[in-house]
Amino acid sequence: MADVTALTFLALCLPLAGALAAPFVIRILGANGAWLLAAAPLFAFLHFLRLLPQIARGQIVTGGYAWVPSYQLSFSWFLDGLSLAFALLITGIGTLIVLYAGAYLRGHKDQGRFFSFIFLFMGAMLGIVVADSFLMFFIFWELTSITSFLLIGFDHEREAARRAALQALVVTGGGGLCLLAGLLILWNMSGVTQMSQLIGLGDMLRESPFYLAALILVLGGAFTKSAQFPFHFWLPNAMEAPTPVSAYLHSATMVKAGVYLLMRLNPVMGATSAWEILLPFFGGLTLVVGTALAIRQTDLKLKLAYTTVSSLGLLVMLIGFGSDHAVEAATLYLVAHSLFKGALFMVAGIIDHETGTRDITRLGGLRRAMPLTWIIALAAAFSMAGLPPFFGFLAKEEIYTALAGGDIRAITFTAIAVFGNALMLAVAFAVALKPFLGRPEQMPKAVHEAPVLLWLGPAVLAILGLLSAIFASFTHAALSSPIAAAIRGTPVEISISLAPHIGLPLALSLLTVLLGIGVYWQLDRARFWIAVFLRAAGGGPDHGFDLAMVGLVRFAGRLIRFVQPGRLEIYVACTFLCLAAILIIPPILYGELPHLPAWPTDVRLYEWAVFLIAAFGLAAVLVARDRLTAIVSLGIQGFAVAVIFLLFGAPDLSFTQFMVETLSVVILALVMTRLRLSPDDRRSPGRRLLHGALALACGLGFSLLLLRATQGPFNDALTQFFNAYSKSIAHGANVVNVIIVDFRGTDTLGEIAVVAVTGLAILALIRIRAGSERKLAANDPDAVGAGE
After folding, report:
1. Cβ 125 vs Cβ 144: under 8 Å
2. β-bridge pairing 61-68 and 73-79
3. Which of 112, 149, 328, 569 is surrounded by the most beta carbons within 10 Å?
4. What are phi and psi of 131, to 5 degrees?
5. Where are the transmembrane segments (predicted)?
6. 191-242 pLDDT, tens digit each
7. How far is CA 349 from the centre of its chain?
């Protein structure tokens, strides 16, 4: 077990190590460094593959390290069928993506930076799927948003890339805040902070009055990350990223994070009316919208991106449908989609890399120049279309088995699935056939077959899509059934194979094929009518995002102009208003007002004299006609307070007060003299009255606080502590000095730093004023005399 824990920790850290090493490796080895860098995800993949038999037998692998045990916070992981499958997809496809990127970005000046970003992204996604603690899960969740921002905006010199990156960050980051609130509610509801402990508390969570609030917040995080309608718009715009990013993003990583979260929480939050209404509704709507928008596109990557949106909608719909067959269908489609979508995106990248264009209307006749790429594209398209003998066929058959039924709900979602799958078939063959058939077109570049590193990745994924269906029994035993068991929360055995399935699912499959062929045959007309409908519908969520961002910026600008008008007087008044409210309102609300003491009768004459001096200083401040007089008068009060400290037996404090008041008066007088600020007070009588009321309120608040503090029982624990340890620990006989210098050393250092910074600011003001006077004297000698 210790060996597994250490190796798992190493596997999680390898992508981060790759991110650090990538710039140096690429600088030394160039594009060939991709072979060395691919060893990091390959080792992680082999480690997780080694755990496959153990997980297939129903065991769970956990481990980690305690971080803050008192708050149940830990860096821990949890590997069951679901998390292990995602870990294998992330590291396995990640290995192929690293090799693919080595050839795709060969010669790019920022290839090292790109590999650093992709490894960080890989590590963040891997952290999500293996995380056990809520905190670890959320940290990695947000890291995927940040790293995807870096990858989408990799070509940051283009405005479209910057906009797409910002859009993805805003949408998924906002969803992350919702998820954080949802996780906190789950923590409050269950009292646990780990996924492994949460799984057994489903009944308690579903019966909680906070269930709906937690569900909506969790769905906010999942729907934004997995691009469910109406948050789907950021995902196609993310195609501004280089193709290796698109292939990785859509096949195995970020966009499936939301799906993973819903699958993970299905045992504890599923099987409720809210779950089975919200997920199928938004998933089905996303499926329809995504496939319709995919038909409209002519860019290969955009067509595939919108079908990813629709596929994510299909997965969410199946997760929410609630039946055993729906869970099995979601499991099969999850694996099938990862294989065929990663392959097709890399094929689209090959076409773009070798021809110079991704526009399907400009492509044609590539089968002779790129026969291997065409075969790979056909194999992946067959799986995406749900045709035998590929794994996508098994997924589609299981989908229809799960959805088909006689009630209106089953009929509705079956029709949605048939419609969506038919359009996906049309898109799949548009990508696999349109660029390769027909007469050769004039291309921006001389067309030839791609180098091995470009076709290796899609070829491996296409072959896996074939072999996993042919050896379905092994695939199910090792991978599919453990995934479904983790999603369902109970043991599941999937048995579907390539054997003929006579019945309604097969009939629906045939109907899907016929409809898909019809749409493909009339693809241009379908694209035209969808474009007409979208123009009539007006701006969609993408345009709405732009309007929202413009409105947010305008609102922020007006709010800042309101709360920060640039006048120090307003800032100070607001500060004292808040201070007075804090000091006065809570004692009134909680009945903590002090009892007014009796008027003192033992005040000596000289003490009255000191109080009168302080009152005289206050009166002098109020009637002063210029600031310099007010500053000197304010010093009178400070000296009076210092004398009071001296009379009551605190000579050290009195000396400190004398020094502070003396320096304050000198420095402020110096500043006022050098700056020559306006001597008159231009405040209106109403504003003077307001400021006077604020001053009285703050004084009243501090008086009430001091009275209440002195009327309570005195706790001399600190006094005894400092008296006992000042000499023995700090080696000082003066307790006050020891407290300031040793026990409060850091605080005192901070105060010194503040005073030093203030002094530097004052010096800068004086020098600026002196410099401006010299300039004015040099330009107009008479102006200086006039100013004085």
Report:
1. yes
2. antiparallel
3. 328
4. -65, 135
5. 31-49, 85-105, 112-129, 166-190, 210-235, 277-295, 304-323, 329-351, 372-391, 411-433, 453-478, 498-521, 568-590, 605-624, 631-649, 655-677, 689-707, 748-766
6. 888 888 888 888 888 888 999 999 999 999 999 999 898 888 888 888 888 8
7. 28
Alpha-helix residue ranges (DSSP H) falling in 434-503: 452-470, 472-475, 481-488
Contact (CB, 8 A) for 263 and 162: no
Cα separation, 570 vs 564, in Å, equals 9
Q: Which two tokens stand for residue 54?
A: 């153990």
Please tell me the distance from the alpha carbon of residue 116 to that of residue 580, in angstroms, as a whole number: 52
Q: How far is CA 401 from CA 270, 348, 676, in A?
A: 20, 32, 87
Alpha carbon distance 678, 721 (integer Å): 52
Query: Which of 175, 264, 269, 138 has its CA nearest to residue 215?
Result: 269
Rounded distance, CA 784 to CA 494, Å? Answer: 93
Which amino acid is located at 510 in the chain?
L
Tell me the one-letter amino acid at 143.
Answer: L
CB atoms within 10 A of CB 561: 10
Question: Distance (Å, rounded) from C-alpha 164 to C-alpha 515?
Answer: 34
Q: Which amino acid is at 779?
A: N
Q: Fill in the amino acid letter for 240.
A: E
Three-point CA angle 724, 729, 732, nearest 5°: 80
Find the length of the chain: 788
User: Which residues, listed in sequence order, are joined to residue 65 by a DSSP beta bridge?
Assistant: 75
Whole-angstrom Cα distance, residue 165 to residue 711?
A: 60
Q: How far is CA 654 from CA 636, 639, 749, in A?
A: 14, 9, 21
- Return the structure tokens found at 256: 């499936």
CB atoms < 10 A from the CB of 776, how many? 13
Question: Which residue bears the tokens 């004039």?
Answer: 442
Residue 674 predicted with pLDDT over 70? no
Beta pairing partners, 133: 194
Strand partners, 269: none
For residues 709 and 397, give the distance between their C-alpha atoms in angstroms, rounded to a whole number.
Answer: 76
652: pLDDT strictly greater than 90: no
Beta bridge mates, 74: 66
- The two three-digit tokens of residue 19, written as one number: 């991110």
Instruction: Give the model's pLDDT for residue 221.
Output: 93
For residue 416, CA distances in Å to 241, 403, 426, 565 come to: 31, 10, 16, 55
Arithmetic mean of pLDDT, 38-51: 92
Supply the pLDDT for residue 786: 43
3-class secondary-structure state, position 406: coil
Instruction: Give the pLDDT confidence score for residue 784 in this predicted structure.
Output: 45
Summarize the chain as % helix, strand, coil (round to 5): 75, 5, 20
> Of the candidates 50, 26, 27, which has an alpha carbon nearest to the alpha carbon of residue 38?
26
Tokens at residue 728, please?
């023995």
Beta-ladder partners of 77 = 63, 131
pLDDT-derived band at 418, boundaries 50, 70, 90:
very high
Q: What is the dihedral of CA 758, 763, 764, 768, to 10 degrees?
A: 140
Bridge partner list, 75: 65
Q: Convert 198-223 to b/e letters by CB count within 10 Å (16 or more is b).
A: bbebbeebbebeebeebbebbbbbbb
d(CA 335, CA 472): 12
**What's the predicted TM-score (pTM) here?**
0.79
Rounded distance between C-alpha atoms, residue 645 and residue 655, angstroms: 9
Nearest Cα neighbor of 266 from 212, 202, 222 is: 202
260 token code pair:
């993973």
User: CB-based burial of residue 180 (10 Å sphere; 0-12 exposed, 13-18 middle, 19+ buried)?
Assistant: middle
CA distance 604 to 434: 104
Tokens of 495: 């048995």
∠ CA 161-167-172 to the nearest 5 degrees?
130
Domain ranges across the chain = 1-536
Cβ distance 443 to 365 under 8 Å? Answer: no
Rounded average pLDDT over 45-68: 86
